[in-house]
Amino acid sequence: MIEVHPDTWVSPHAVLRGDVTIGPGSRVLDFVSIHATSGPVMIGRDVVVMEHAVLRGRAEHPLTIGDAALVGPHTHLNGATLEDEVFVATGASMFPGSRAGTGSELRINSVLHVNSRLQPGTVVPIGWIAAGDPAELFSPERHHDLWQVQEALDFPRTVYGVARGTPMREIMRRQSELYAPPDEE
Fold first, then answer.
1. pLDDT digits (tens, 9 = 90+) for 48-103
2. Beta carbons within 8 Å of 27's beta carbon, 6+ residues apart
3. Domain range summary for the chain, segments of one domain joined by +
4. Which tens digit of pLDDT belongs to each residue from 101-146?
5. How far apart are CA 28 and CA 13, in angstroms?
6. Is the four-CA dihedral 84, 90, 96, 99 of positive or negative sign?
7. How far apart are the first and last CA of the chain?
């Protein structure tokens, strides 16, 4: 069910599917894709979701965006929680189970990893990765240090529901089933 407050504007070029709720004063711009067929997407008051953003709810991890947040162009929000006044810049990504605290910022092309939590007011610099609970910040060249935190966050189980080491053929078979077209009535 899609519920859009009468004070909200959604571009006719945006795609909304499934259990989507959008609060008053919010704006969803051209070519935004909101997928809430596997889990709900809830967007608060006075939120701007910019062009080409992809928002996805998951059964285990609904996507929740608080009030007065900005979701920049080409962002990817998947099963995450954004508290109030969060700024997500162009190309940033938040993965399932992640949480951005009030007033935090994910700058251009940054990542908040699965099951990771940004403290309120935290800034993730351009191109950096935040991982852990609470999140540590890692520059791209610190991949080895990042892996020491990231491995325990269990990306394969959180995102795909499988143990680490599951063959790619099995993961993609499951993904193909998950994204099968809905039955027509």
1. 999 999 999 999 999 999 999 999 999 999 999 999 999 999 999 999 999 999 99
2. 8, 9, 10, 47, 48, 49
3. 2-153, 154-185
4. 999 999 999 999 999 999 999 999 999 999 999 999 999 999 899 9
5. 9
6. negative
7. 17
Two tokens, residue 90: 């162009």
Q: Can the peptide bond before residue 156 be classed as cis, meaning omega within 30 degrees of 0?
A: no
Question: Residue 184: its pLDDT value, please?
Answer: 56
Is residue 85 left, alpha or beta, with left meaning phi > 0 and alpha meaning psi from -120 to 50? left
Chain centroid, CA 43 distance in Å: 12
SS3 89: coil
Q: Supply the mean pLDDT for the chain.
A: 95
The CATH class for the domain spanning 2-153 reads mainly beta
- The answer to whether 137 and 101 are in contact (CB under 8 A) is no
Residues 6+ apart with CB under 8 A from 54: 32, 33, 35, 75, 76, 77, 78
E strand map for 73-170: 76-78, 81-82, 87-88, 93-94, 99-100, 105-106, 111-112, 117-118, 123-124, 129-132, 135-138
pLDDT at 7: 96
Q: Are 93 and 73 in contact (CB under 8 A)?
A: no
The first and second tokens of residue 53, run together, are 């953003």
